[in-house]
From TrEMBL, chains A, B:
Gene transcribed to yield this protein: leuB
Species per Swiss-Prot/TrEMBL record: Flagellimonas meridianipacifica
InterPro entries associated with the record: IsoCit/isopropylmalate_DH_CS, IsoPropMal-DH-like_dom, Isopropylmalate_DH
Domain Isopropylmalate dehydrogenase-like: 4-346
Pathway annotation: Amino-acid biosynthesis; L-leucine biosynthesis; L-leucine from 3-methyl-2-oxobutanoate: step 3/4
Residue positions binding substrate: 97, 107, 135, 221
Cellular component annotations (GO), alphabetically ordered: cytosol
Name listed for the protein in its UniProt record: 3-isopropylmalate dehydrogenase
Cofactor remark from the record: Binds 1 Mg(2+) or Mn(2+) ion per subunit.
Subcellular location: Cytoplasm
Amino acid sequence: MKLNLALLPGDGVGPEVLSQAVKCLQAVEETFNHQFIYREAPIGAYAIDKYGTSLPEKTLDLCKTSDAILFGAIGDPKYDNNPEAKTRPEEGLLELRKSLGLFANIRPVKAFSSLSEKSPLKKEIIENVDFIIYRELTGGIYFGEKKTNEDGTIASDLCEYSEKEISRVAHLAFKAAKNRDGKLTLVDKANVLESSRLWRKVVSKIAESYPEVKLDYLFVDNAAMQLILNPRQFDVILTENMFGDILSDEASVIGGSIGLLASASIGEENALFEPIHGSYPQAKGMDIANPVASILSAAMLLEHHSLFEEAMAVREAVDKALKKGVVTTDLNEKSQYGTNQVGDFIADNI
Amino acid sequence: MKLNLALLPGDGVGPEVLSQAVKCLQAVEETFNHQFIYREAPIGAYAIDKYGTSLPEKTLDLCKTSDAILFGAIGDPKYDNNPEAKTRPEEGLLELRKSLGLFANIRPVKAFSSLSEKSPLKKEIIENVDFIIYRELTGGIYFGEKKTNEDGTIASDLCEYSEKEISRVAHLAFKAAKNRDGKLTLVDKANVLESSRLWRKVVSKIAESYPEVKLDYLFVDNAAMQLILNPRQFDVILTENMFGDILSDEASVIGGSIGLLASASIGEENALFEPIHGSYPQAKGMDIANPVASILSAAMLLEHHSLFEEAMAVREAVDKALKKGVVTTDLNEKSQYGTNQVGDFIADNI
Ligand SMILES: CC(C)[C@H](C(=O)O)[C@@H](O)C(=O)O
Ligand SMILES: CC(C)[C@H](C(=O)O)[C@@H](O)C(=O)O
């Protein structure tokens, strides 16, 4: 198979972890006789510094003409505490999601048994945890109108949802639940928010077309508790953009390291794959960042193009690295392996 | 001292846990020679069923003329999945907060060492955890304009904050931090939300008047992770209404039971005290709900009126019950004690 891949390294440790994913994709090309074409483009703080905008037009064009996008990380602390900043690295990622219509962010959460000591949760809590979060990604308070009054004393953000925005991601989540354990949990705040009540209305209607799936509801505050008290109860979680942002990062603690978690952002015509960890600026260029999340993002990319055997080879190589202790220091303080060596080991085992 | 107390039992297990708190307050009256006058009023689903509104006028009037309010719980599942419901029990609580100007919700989070096996988190994670959450309670997306378009296909909620709303709760949080370990963490989503950027601007300005306090910032998604990965890092957390709702319920897992956590909601002229657990309708009338959160809410009430010795007596009686195993089944499956017996034991030990 021939695939055109856009590479967006971004900021912080993005470039170094992305390189490891590319190594693994190259190993897949060789072993399975595919041809992947890699084209790189700037985004985020890196793009602001160089081109004055966090999402240059040519980056967006490249993404539009690619079969899939592999993304590194975004964000730079120098923009975080500057309320006067005219542009922010994160805007590039948000614009990219919106322009490409990447409406569903999919984050699998699984406890790797070889790493259960790393989790802050007790072993009996995380054993056999295996669920997926479907987060709506192009609506809600992220993209609603933002306002500040003239003298800068009042600011607001609008959280808006339409039936259409809700139903397209809901259908994906129901399909996933149907192929898994048949349980879907809608997380909202319907006792307070009008938009949440629309979510409940639309999702409960859609449920009628999926009789195999059992739908239940959880308020977001309760969900934040249940994720830690009893994560095994979940199969597929469906939620809106902001709640999904919070809950999926929270859920990342289950596995013991955020450095292991990959995500896919899917639209009608495009798909982007990225580690869920951020740009981790303190580690930039130090060869210590965990490349596994980025490599597993590449595995999700392969699956998205129905290259299941290839994805499995990547996953098995990752498992081998974890079992053999070829891991970065976030997983084992005494480890001697750096980002590059872990990437090499995994690529060599594909 | 003479105090006029409004009692709002509300729904589910609210009435039964509130009764235990009243028992303890009566014990305090006797032991310390005070006079508390208790006046009860309806709220929530109970009030809807009886009077057609979740906050009857006479309830609000009673609260306004009281020195403090002791609250049970609110909510009934029969309203949750009914998008057509004209009124909801929760509205009563939200209206009460707004009408009384209870702008700061204060939730202490502490790990009781006698209960560390109950927590889903590992012992070494929760040891010596001791922080307070200051949640803004009368602004943000809870109270912003709510809209649904004519054909019910689009719904929205506005998240709005003013400098004034931010600064009054921020001052309380800074003062608390000054009297504690001198560390304040502002949780927001300033990389996405305009309202969060206003929070950062206002709070960082206020910080200049509290040179003893070290201010730092955390994005809400990261905060949801850090609360579980390393809760000891926190001293005082300050955040807006919705993030506070989610994070404080999440933080409740640290102690092992949400049945232990109390909260205070403070305004210029009024204050309300309530357990953070909900109405727990499945347990209603079964004499199994944990009364400790409600009793500790009464202790916070006493502290609010500077009755520190009295509050300490209540806290010590609670500690004794926990240490002696006089607890409800949420803390010990094999326990024989019900809500009433635990309440009696604690009251007797004051
Ligand atoms: C970087 C930030 C804008 C982004 C988000 O909030 O969506 C990130 O936290 C994520 O979850 O991908
Ligand atoms: C009952 C509900 C409206 C309320 C809230 O969201 O504020 C509750 O969850 C709380 O935290 O007190």
